[in-house]
Amino acid sequence: MNDAATLDTADPLASHRRKFLQSPDVIAYLDGNSLGRPLAASVDRVAEFMRDQWGSRLIRGWDEGWMTRGQAIGDDLGRVCIGAAPGQTTIGDSTTVLLYKLIRAAVDARPGRTEVVIDRGNFPTDRYTVEGVAAERGLTVRWIEAAPVTVADVAAVVGATTALLVLSHVDYRSAHMLDAPAITALAHRAGALVLWDLCHSVGAVPTWLDAWGVDLAVGCTYKYLNGGPGSPAFAYVSTAMQGIFRQPIQGWLGSRHPFTMAHGFEPAPGIRSVLSGTPPLIGMLAMQDMIALIEEAGMAAIRAKSVALTEFAIALTDELLPDATLASPRDCAVRGSHVTVNDDRFTSIMSTLWKQGIIPDFRTPNGIRLGLSPLSTSFAEVEMGVRAIAAALR
Ligand SMILES: *Cc1c(COP(=O)(O)O)cnc(C)c1O
Q: Is the CB of 379 under 6 A from ligand 1?
C-alpha cells in the first residue's frame, strides 16, 4: 500500500481541495456523501446574489433569468454529470417530493399495470413514497429482498404487471453500484418504466442517462454536488417520457401560461412540467459552483480519484480494523464513492470521534460509512480517520 503522502502528491486533483472552506476543528471530514463542504466561491456567489441581484434587481430579477435558472442548471448538470442532453433535467423540490411526483406520473403513464417494484434495502424515503403512491393508486408494492440487487433479482420480479421499477444506482449503505443499463433494458423489455435514484452517484460516479435509455431519475444536490443543507434536488424526465408525463402537484409554475392566471390547468411543455411553485433560487446558488468545478476537473478524473480513495480506505480498514466487516464491494467496478464497515462497537465511539474532529457517518445498526468526496477529500484525511477509529476502539 502506498502511503497517504505519496498518494496526495501524485493526485492530479489535489489542488482543488484548497477551493473548499476548511473547518478549523475538523481533521478528517469523511461525510461528504451526506453534506458536501462549501466552496469558497459559493460564499461570494451568495453575497453577490443578495446584493446585486435580489437587492438591486428586486422583482425584475424574475424576468432576468431567475425563473428559468433551475432548467439552466439542470442542463449544465445533464452535460457535466449525468449524460443528459438539454431540456430533460431541472432543479425542483426536495428529492422526496420529486420522487413522489415522478413515481405518481410514472404509474399513471402505465394504466392497467398493478405493481411497483422496489428493493427492501432502498433508502427509507424512496420506500415510503413508493408505498404512499401505491396506496393512493390501489397498486401493489413488489419487494426485491436481495441486497445487493442483481440483474437476475430484477428479472425475477419484473413482468407484464410491472408499472414502474424504482432503484438506487449506488446503495446508500453498502455503496454497491447496480448495472443500470442492463436493468433499464430488462425493465423496458417487460414494458415497465424505470426511475433511478442518483443521490449517491451524482458528482462522484458518472451516469449516462440518455445512452442507457433511462425514463426518470432524481438526485440530491447537497451530497457530492455541495449545494448546502437542504439545497433543492434535480429531476430528469427523458424527452420520450415527457409526452406522457403528468405529475400530481398542479401548480401555476408548472402550467403552460403561468401569468395569464387562467382557469383550468394545462401542463407546461417539456421539463418545466415537473415544477409546481416558485423556484427556490437561493438554494440553487452553491451547487452552480460545484458543477462548474466538476466540469473543470472532469467526471472521468473525479471517478478515478474516487476509486483510488475507496481502494485506499479498504486497504486501511483491512489492516487497522481487522475485526470489522467490510459491507462494500471489493470490486471497484461495482462500488460508489463511500466505504462502509460494520462493527457492533461503532455506536459507542462516534461521540469520541466527533470530539476529535474526525467525522465519519454512522448508519444503524452498526455501520461506519466513510464518504469520500473526490474533490474535497485527501488521502491523508482518510488515513487519519481510519487510524482514529482504530484508536477509539482500543
Ligand atoms: C440522501 C437521500 C435522500 C434524501 O432525500 P431528501 O428529500 O433530500 O431528504 C433520498 N434518497 C436517497 C437514496 C438518499 O441517499
A: no
**Mutation choice for ligand 1 from 97, 101, 199, CB with most ligand atoms inside 8 A:** 199
Give yes or no for residue 176 having a pLDDT over 90: yes
CATH placement of domain 67-280: 3.40.640.10
CB of 198 within 6 A of ligand 1: the answer is: no
CATH C-level class of 4-39+298-393: alpha beta
List Cβ neighbours of 115 (8 Å cut-off, separation of 6 or more): 139, 140, 141, 142, 161, 162, 163
Q: Which three cell numbers stand for residue 121?
A: 434495502
In angstroms, what is the span from residue 220 Cα to ligand 1's centroid? 6
Atom in ligand 1 nearest the alpha carbon of residue 223? 1
126 C-alpha vs ligand 1 centroid, how far in Å?
A: 8
The residue type found at 122 is: N
Residues acting as catalytic residues = 123, 197, 222-223, 369
Distance CA 57, CA 64 (A): 9
Cell of 322: 481487522
Ligand 1 pocket mutation, candidates 149, 172, 218, 226, criterion most atoms within 8 A of CB: 172
What's the mean per-residue pLDDT of the chain?
A: 97
Q: Which residues pair with 142 in a beta bridge?
A: 117
The torsion of the CA quartet 282, 286, 289, 292, rounded to 10 degrees, works out to: -80
Nearest of 303, 335, 79 to residue 208 by alpha carbon: 79
pLDDT in tens, 279-313: 999 999 999 999 999 999 999 999 999 999 999 99
Cis peptide leading into 322, omega within 30 of 0? Answer: no
The domain segmentation of the chain, as residue ranges, is 4-39+298-393, 67-280
Question: How far apart, in whole angstroms, are the C-alpha atoms of residue 181 and residue 207?
Answer: 10
